[in-house]
Amino acid sequence: MSLKDWFEERKQKNVAKDGRVASQQAKTIEDNLWTKCPSCKDTQYTKDLVNNFWACTKCATYLRVSATDRIGMIFDDDTFHEVDSELESIDRLKFVDSKPYTKRLEEAKAQTGMKDGVIIGHGLVNNYRLNVAVMDFNFMGGSMGSLVGHKIARIIEIATENKEPVMIVSASGGARMQEGVVSLMQMAKTSAALARHKEAGQLFISFLTDPTAGGVTASFAMLGDYNISEPNASIAFTGRRVIEQTIKQKLPKDFQTAEYLKAHGMVDAIIERKNLKTQLTKILSLYYKPAE
């Protein structure tokens, strides 16, 4: 089955083999004939947005996409294989804020059809091998809890063992507060895995999408051999208001955008979605041979 057929089957049944349902944004075009752009508010055919890589056909604003949609944009048909799809988050600390963490997890799982905020796996990009961790902002703001950190470290270790490249697609508000210090530990865990990957002489591509913030930015998201981003992505550690109140100064209007970070040397390239697969192929071809 090709990736195109796989996504179509998921959309028709609304349930995948691993128990995930399609995200709100990835539902069938028949169910969501029209989609409103969050920026210009223009209402467009969802089919036109899909054909335009979920970029507004009027103002070119990028709509946030699910992890499964992102995978479909990156990999060759019938090549992506998911790893550790059976794992799911649990409430280790029995944390309660305005509602129990267990309840929040149940709601996020029901809303997205995912078991946590990241999908990991490997496949071919124009016949070049690539391992990926793709975060999904729809699952509790893409926050990084213990399972997210575990799965990201896991795919890095697989790539290191197989002497292959790895790419992490970041879409996150940062650490997951309901898991406390266990969540913060994932910053060190993922960074250590990347250090071993680098020592082994293998490539790491960090792909920053909107938004990338908090502990994710402070750890693996900025450690890439190549740090690439989508246009106009919000990339930050903490919020603009907190910084302004701390330093008692107004920040530039474009502060914490991909373009600002590129101008100041923190991002290597800004790549449009329609060109991502081609650019990834060029990068991979510099370091690796095509799959036999």
Short description:
The chain is of the alpha/beta class. The chain has a single domain (66-285), classed as 2-enoyl-CoA Hydratase, Chain A, domain 1.
What does this molecule look like?
This protein has 292 residues and is α/β, with parallel strands linked by helices. It has one domain (66-285): 2-enoyl-CoA Hydratase, Chain A, domain 1 (Alpha-Beta Complex). It is 36% helix and 16% strand. α6 (180-199) links the parallel β6 (166-172) and β7.
Please provide the count of β strands: 9
What's the structural domain tally? 1
Oligomer: single chain
Question: How many helices?
Answer: 10
Q: Indicate the low-confidence ranges by residue numbers.
A: 10-28
Topology order in helix (H) and strand (E) letters: HEEHHEHEEHEHEHEHHEH
Task: List key phrases describing it.
alpha/beta; 10 helices; 2-enoyl-CoA Hydratase, Chain A, domain 1; two-stranded antiparallel sheet; single chain; globular; 292 residues; 7-stranded mixed beta sheet
Topology of this structure?
Layout: H1 3-13, E1 34-36, E2 43-45, H2 46-51, H3 67-74, E3 81-83, H4 101-112, E4 118-125, E5 128-135, H5 146-161, E6 166-172, H6 180-199, E7 204-212, H7 214-217, E8 226-229, H8 240-247, H9 258-263, E9 269-270, H10 273-285
Parallel strand pairs: 5-6, 6-7, 7-8, 8-9
Antiparallel strand pairs: 1-2, 3-4, 4-5
